[in-house]
Amino acid sequence: MISVFQSIYVRISQFQNQSAFKMKCLIIIYIIFISLILIVAEAEANEDESCVATRIAEEECGKHTYKAVRPLLKYIHQMKEEIENNNNMIESKDREIKQLQGELNQNNKQVIEELRAQNQFYKQSIKELTNNVLSKKEEVTKPDSNSNSLKIQDYEEQLEKQKESIDQQAQQISELKNEINNCEKKNKSIEVKPVHGECTEFADTPGIHKITPDQEDPFDVLCDSATAGPGWTVIQQRINGKEDFYRNWATYREGFGSFDGDFFLGLEKIHRLTRAQPHELFIHMEGFDGQIKNRKYDQFAISGEEDQYRLITLHSSERSTEYDNLENHKDKKFSTFDRDNFDGHAHCLYQNKRGGGWWYGGCSFSDLNGKYYDHKVHKSDSMHWAFGGSLKTVKMLIRPKSNGKENKN
Description:
By secondary structure, the chain is an alpha+beta fold. The protein is built from seven helices and eleven strands. Strands 1, 2, 3, 4, 5, 6, 7, 8 and 11 form a nine-stranded antiparallel sheet that branches. A two-stranded antiparallel sheet has the order 9-10. β6 (279-287) and β7 form a beta hairpin. The model is unreliable at 403-409 (pLDDT under 50).
């Protein structure tokens, strides 16, 4: 029996290091087991009551049993104390947990109250901001009482679009300012000169001027106030023979030469001048013998290119014993070497050689655009007036008539 208790004790000692729960279970099992042993022992003792030795053995057995069970009882007592201490600790921990839960609940209530207060504050702030935005929107859009108010998002989108539009307009304004500055710089760099219709406006300042007799492009002319009085426009000039007048049709139409020497203004420009208003014609001629001849016509005009620049108007009120060597060319078309509009006598066509472009007719009584000779010659292709020989200088000038009346020199 002692060996049994010793084995039980060893077995219990082996389980001392396990958890409290397992220990409790083992202790209960072993207590039951020991109780059964004691009951069995007691039953055995009752069966042998007559034996004193048996009582002595029981006493000795009890002593030996106590010795064997004492460590176990001591351990059980320790375990009971530990269990009671653990229960007390658990109750203390439970009280601490309840206290902490109370504090946590109190803190939670306080935090919740603070969060509610903040939430209320945020709601009030959002409401105030919304009312402010709506009031600003009403000031900008000014909706009717029956119109629906715009949503805040739509209003912000409109503001963004307006901002983009303002930026674009600012960019356009900047570009326009740059263009204006560039135009102002160009205007400052360009001298603006008034455009005039005739040389009569430059009577006191002869020379080269730009005129516009009609609605077409302006062109330069040479104004003369010394040859026959103020306000004349030079349409032809021969002074040194440096310019060849044997030119084609296109060149006579546009004009050629230079204003400081020999030149022809151009048939198209002469037509534009005489078409705009009535003109008079003055011809100044000088021979190699120094003799000067002037011839004046109070009416002069030529037609356009479609009519071959015909000499349509030529009239002189002067009385002269000399034959009018230009009158014979009236109603004649202009001719050049590449465009022959001659309609005179056939024998004159073969007898006369042409030195330039002119209103040829008859037997060429004049050719102020003929070939220039540096001395006097009697040739039909020369620059001549009638049959007095070649001329040294020639100048043809035209001037507008005042109210259809002749200008006074």
